[in-house]
């Protein structure tokens, strides 16, 4: 609407300017015509005045020739007379023709014609008398003043006619000059108006050009901003025209589709965005085509995967919406989609967390129910071992049974303690804690003939809950013992690293078992993930990582270096004292 108004304003300005120029041309032409007409009439007056003078001159010449003849008798003096006699009538007729529009002049010419004839007749009479030898009578006629009176009347008529033409000439001269002034005024005025209109129109056009340039710059700025935003957004974005041909892909869309912007531009969306049902692998209707057909926003059905050119399938979620211009006409479609693989993982973790919560409650219940009869069994073994009549072999077996029952009781107490979280944090001596775990698994080490290698440096204590850290070390030692073959080796290394004022304690537990496959390395800390088939629950490493991270530490797994087979778990904790205190402990 605003653009149409501006166009109408410019067109209206041109029309007004054109009207001014046309008016200027019309008025100027009219004034020039008036000026030409006035000039013609002024020239006409001058012609009349010249013609009057010509008639008067002829009559004077006729009278002069007559007198010269009378005084000399020579015929050569009659030439002016003869010319006047033959020409006066034609000159008077020409004068009458020139003044045909003026009735006063016509009346004066009629009188002049009579007087001129009388004068010529009077001159002819004297000449005839002279030729007939009557010179005295001819002179007497001349001296009678009849001819003088006639000539005076002629002069009076001619003077009157001259005055009439002079008056008309003055009026026409004034009109001519007035027309010149009016013509100049009209030219100046219309030229000024036209120039002013041109200036206004030029100003308006220049201003509109500047505004359009500014608008174009703003549009380019906004376009760059939107393009940068779409490029930086975390979801994939594809834009198409009204026919579904691709016009834009952001980097995320390039990564998810496996197609670059350069190769996708101009291609149909169906070619670069093939989607299928995740379960049946049947093709799914493209949402862009549905938006073009129905003109409204559309979303994907659940369980949809996007296939890259290399065949890789990515689960996605997307929506498509129409792009419309100011008139509401559909000019394109924008498709926004994202990889929901992490969402799927999160959902699995949440489901596993629910399972873990149920397992935790069940474990706590089982541990609680087992603890009471277990304590009774421990007490009965203790009483039986004190029987003085029992054989020594039985006593040894009862002692071993008491130790095993104590270990089971310790595990149940750990289980209850872990889920009750009722232990207060404090300083933990990792070296002593590791030694206690070794004692816990001494029988297992002995049974599998496992070799333990200890490399302990002097390290400051860490801060945490003793039972929880012991649970972590116990899980790692137990996994290492399960992983190695009979006669295998477990290496436990404890050392410190100083970085400025910060001291970290590193515990590494290595084994020479089969190691961890690359595809399992990222999943090994997930709940319920296990490679022990029916033996493990898949919770040990997940619980260990939760405990370590809750204590501000980290735990990673790697396969051993330098060609050695087996896995290495490295746990890192912050030391609980300043650098100076740690240095004092290290000696």
TrEMBL record:
Keywords of this entry: ATP-binding, Kinase, Membrane, Nucleotide-binding, Phosphoprotein, Transferase, Transmembrane, Transmembrane helix, Two-component regulatory system
Q: Please give the Gene Ontology molecular function terms for this protein.
A: ATP binding; phosphorelay sensor kinase activity
Q: Start and end of every PAS domain?
A: 222-295
Transmembrane residues, as ranges? Answer: 187-206
Q: Which positions fall inside the PAC domain?
A: 299-352
Q: Which reaction does it catalyse?
A: ATP + protein L-histidine = ADP + protein N-phospho-L-histidine
Cross-referenced InterPro entries = CHASE3, HATPase_C_sf, HATPase_dom, His_kinase_dom, HisK_dim/P_dom, HisK_dim/P_sf, PAC, PAS
Say which domain of life the source belongs to. Answer: Bacteria
Positions of the Histidine kinase domain: 365-577
Q: What is its EC number?
A: 2.7.13.3
The enzyme's first-digit EC class, named in words, is transferase
Which protein, by its recorded name, is this?
histidine kinase
Q: Which organism is it from?
A: Telmatobacter sp. DSM 110680
